[in-house]
Each structure stands twice: as structure tokens, then as C-alpha cells.
Design goal:
Layout lengths: L4 E6 L20 E2 L3 E2 L2 H9 L4 E6 L4 H10 L10 E6 L13 H8 L10 E6 L2 E3 L3 H11 L3 E8 L1 H4 L3 E4 L8 E4 L15 H5 L4 E11 H10 L6 H10 L4 E5 L4 E3 L3 H10 L27 E2 L3 E7 L4 E2 L3 E7 L4 E2 L4 E7 L21 E2 L4 E7 L4 E2 L4 E3 L7 E2 L3 E4 L2 E4 L4 E2 L6
Parallel strand pairs: 1-4, 1-6, 4-5, 8-12, 14-16, 15-17, 16-18, 17-19, 19-21, 20-22, 21-23, 21-26, 22-27
Antiparallel strand pairs: 2-3, 6-11, 7-13, 8-11, 9-10, 9-11, 24-25, 25-26
Length: 422
């Protein structure tokens, strides 16, 4: 069953809502949790579910994603069915355009999958944080004789207005669907849910953007609706009236990393004593590139609710509610709170640790204060820099940093000189 399943991870478009983190990388390649990439989440879910034929579709800034996939996911040479492949948008005799949407991306790429022996196609997003057993979804799909299964998550009325909402029957079939209903429409979209969810007001089933198609159904839909570009807006509504479409309800933690704010909050949530997304569950560990870095070294630092990845050299005074990435270098007397420091791709040499021509070395200098901020990789922040994000700052994109929803993002490889105040 699982060896008859192909997973297709949608890399998304330009990632404009995650800009400037997507300025030089695709959305699935954005670092998360100090040492991972977003694409590691759905791939790890696949591997734990014994789905080992995996394609990642991308078209924007795919070089770093290609490197990460190549350096991370190596399968046994005797396991011929196991692979993680990148399928970048390409011009062909049948199409001269880049991917125009989620459905168009799969349609343009599906000819690359013809040599695989598969019966089911698992469509996944590359920018969500969750831990799901896809085996359970596919087994239920087969048991029901479904043509299409849509993973749904129960949400409350406030959240329901931001999602596509499925109305389900008692047997789990989905007869109708509405995209981002207004508050005045919600009374018509209540579904049957267990009592503990009803008590929480989570009576609306939101599409998670996770689909299981039977192979014949997917090809039929592509043939019937040749101009359809998007699954959620076009393919799914068309399928409801013609095929057996079922809901698979997921009650665990799930969040869409679609914006800077949601990315920021999801990372900081990992620092809680009992985070909803559990990085420490060995049965559901997140796989990523094995870099073989030394352990992080700390000197004189007070830590509170902080994740520190390997390879760091940290002399900060205090770090609170922060995610500190690989190879991070943080100088003496610095305070960091409510922040994501993504770390560095390399260690500077002794000569490079000296400030030259007013340009500080890679890392964060001495006596800095950084609050409500994201420091992207390889940034150079000098001494006595003060960055204090919040609603008092005007959103915008500037030379070396951006402000989005009050969060300051120091862009990748940028330079913030000594004494700068943001």
C-alpha cells in the first residue's frame, strides 16, 4: 500500500508573504527550529509513514533547496524505490509557462512520475508545521473506497474565516465546500465533531491543504479541467460533485507557516516547556542534514526558555525565549529575547573576526540588545547595536533590514554597523 504511494510536496511560489526570508531562497528552504528547514517537516512525516517516493516541486530560488535535499536524503542503494527528488519548473513542448498554481504544478510535473508504479498521490504543502501519520490517512482512503481524501482540522469560528471550510456528513463524505466564509455564514457550516472539540467551539472543519488522490481520479480531473490552476479553488470544488470525497480529521498541532508573524510565533512556541510541536519525540523525530558540528560553547550566559543548536560560540549576558541556530557567534554583554537567530553557514577565521573598514565579522557583537527580531543567516551585527521590534515601528523594507508586523528582520548576509539603533 505505502509503496504504491507517491508524495508530492508543493514548494509554493515566490513566497512573498515570507519576504525577506525568501529573498534568496525558496519557501521550503527557510530555516526553522535552529537547525532544520521547512521542507524537512513533510519529508520526515513521509519517512515515518513509510512513504519513500517523494517529489518536491519548486521554481523560485531553488539552489539552496537543491543543495539541502542532495546533502540530506540519501537512501540505501539497494532500496530502488526510495528517493527525494526536486522537480523544478521547466519549459517543455507542451508548456512554455512556469507553474501557475498548485494544480498546474502537479499537472506539469506528473509526466516525470510515469515510470513509478503507484496508485495513490499524496499532495502536501512545504510550509506547514505538524506531525502526521500519513499511513492512517491512506488506509482510511482505501477502506472507504474514496476517490479523494482531504485532511481537515477542527477550528473555531474566529479561525474559520481564514480557511476553506468543509461541510461533512455523518459518514465523513464532503458534499460542499466554501472558501473563507464570513462570520455571518458560519452557522451553515457546522460539522459533526466529538464532544471535546464541540466544547472548545472547534466545530468547523478547515482544509489543511493535504490531499490523497487515487491515481485515476487525479488524471481524470486534470483531463476534464485542463485550465484549472489551483486545487483549493478549482479542482476540489469540481471533485465534490463528481467523485467520492471524504474528510480525514486531524486533531493534533498544525500551523501554516505562511507569513512572517506565523513563522516567528511557531519558532518561539518551540521554546515552551511543553511545546505543541514536539522535537524530542524519538518516534517522530525530524530528519535534517547531519553537519557533524561540535557542541555549542557558552560562557557567562543566563538562559531562559531557549533552544541552542550545535556549533555555537556564545558569550551573551542573557538569552530569553529565543531560537539560536547553528554556528551562532554572540559577543559578551549582549541580551537577546523574543528572537530567532538563524546562525551561520561557516566559521569565520581568526583574521575575519577582526572588524575591518567598519564592517563587523559574521555574528552578533558585544553589548547588543535584540528584541522581537529575526536575524537571518550570515548577518554581521557590530558592537553596541540596539534592535527593538514592536508596533511602534513602521513596516517596510530598508537597506539592511525589514520590518513586518513589528518584527525586525535583519536580512541574510547584511551588515549592521556598530552603534546602530533600530
Amino acid at each position: 500500500m505505502m509503496d504504491k504511494t507517491i508524495a508530492v510536496i508543493l514548494g509554493g511560489g515566490a513566497g512573498s508573504r515570507l519576504y525577506p526570508l525568501t529573498k534568496s531562497r525558496s519557501k521550503p528552504a527557510v530555516p526553522i527550529g535552529g537547525k532544520y528547514r521547512l521542507v524537512d517537516i513533510p519529508i520526515s512525516n513521509c519517512l515515518h509513514s513509510d512513504v519513500r517516493q517523494i517529489y518536491v516541486l519548486t521554481q523560485f530560488n531553488s539552489a539552496s533547496l537543491n543543495r539541502h535535499i542532495k546533502n540530506t536524503y540519501h537512501f540505501d542503494s539497494f532500496n530502488r524505490k526510495g528517493f527525494v527528488d526536486i522537480l523544478a519548473a521547466e519549459q517543455t513542448p507542451n508548456s512554455q509557462q512556469w507553474y501557475q498554481g498548485t494544480a498546474d504544478a502537479v499537472r506539469q510535473s506528473i509526466h516525470h512520475m510515469e515510470n513509478n508504479d503507484y496508485e495513490y498521490v499524496l499532495i502536501l504543502s512545504g510550509d506547514q508545521l505538524y506531525q502526521m501519520n500519513y499511513r492512517a490517512v491512506i488506509e482510511k482512503h482505501i477502506e472507504r473506497g474514496a476517490d479523494l481524501t482531504i485532511a481537515t482540522i477542527p477550528v473555531n469560528g474566529e479561525d474559520a474565516t481564514g480557511f476553506g471550510i468543509m461541510k461533512t456528513e455523518a459518514n465523513g463524505t464532503i458534499p460542499t465546500f466554501i472558501e473563507k466564509p464570513g462570520l455571518d455564514q458560519l452557522s451553515d457550516w457546522v460539522s459533526e465533531v466529538p464532544d471535546h472539540l464541540r466544547d472548545q467551539g472547534r466545530v468547523y472543519l478547515a482544509s489543511m491543504g493535504i490531499y490523497v488522490f487515487s491515481r485515476k481520479t487525479l488524471l481524470d480531473l486534470f483531463n476534464k479541467y485542463e485550465d484549472a490552476k489551483d486545487f483549493g479553488k478549482e479542482i476540489i470544488p469540481a471533485a465534490l460533485s463528481e467523485y467520492n470525497v471524504y474528510s480525514h480529521t486531524y486533531e493534533g498541532y498544525w500551523t501554516d507557516i505562511g507569513t512572517i508573524k506565523s513563522f516567528f510565533e511557531a519558532n518561539l512556541e518551540l521554546t515552551n516547556e511543553l511545546p505543541q510541536f514536539d522535537l524530542y519525540d524519538e518516534s517522530r523525530q525530524i530528519f535534517t542534514r547531519a553537519r557533524l558540528l561540535p557542541a555549542s560553547k557558552l560562557s557567562g550566559t543566563t538562559l531562559e526558555k531557549t533552544i541552542i543548536a550545535e556549533g555555537g560560540i556564545i558569550e551573551a549576558s542573557r538569552i530569553e525565549r529565543a531560537v539560536i541556530g547553528i554556528r551562532s557567534r554572540i559577543g559578551r554583554g549582549t541580551t537577546i529575547c523574543n528572537a530567532i537567530v538563524m546562525g551561520n553557514d561557516y566559521y569565520p577565521s581568526l583574521e575575519q573576526l577582526e572588524t575591518t573598514n567598519g564592517i563587523p565579522p559574521v555574528g552578533i557583537g558585544q553589548r547588543c540588545y535584540i528584541n522581537n527580531a529575526i536575524v537571518d543567516k550570515n548577518a554581521r551585527i557590530g558592537n553596541d547595536v540596539r534592535i527593538n521590534g514592536g508596533d511602534h515601528l513602521k513596516d517596510g523594507h530598508y537597506d539592511n533590514y525589514s520590518v513586518v508586523d513589528g518584527i525586525v528582520i535583519v536580512t541574510k548576509s547584511s551588515v549592521i554597523k556598530d552603534g546602530t539603533v533600530i
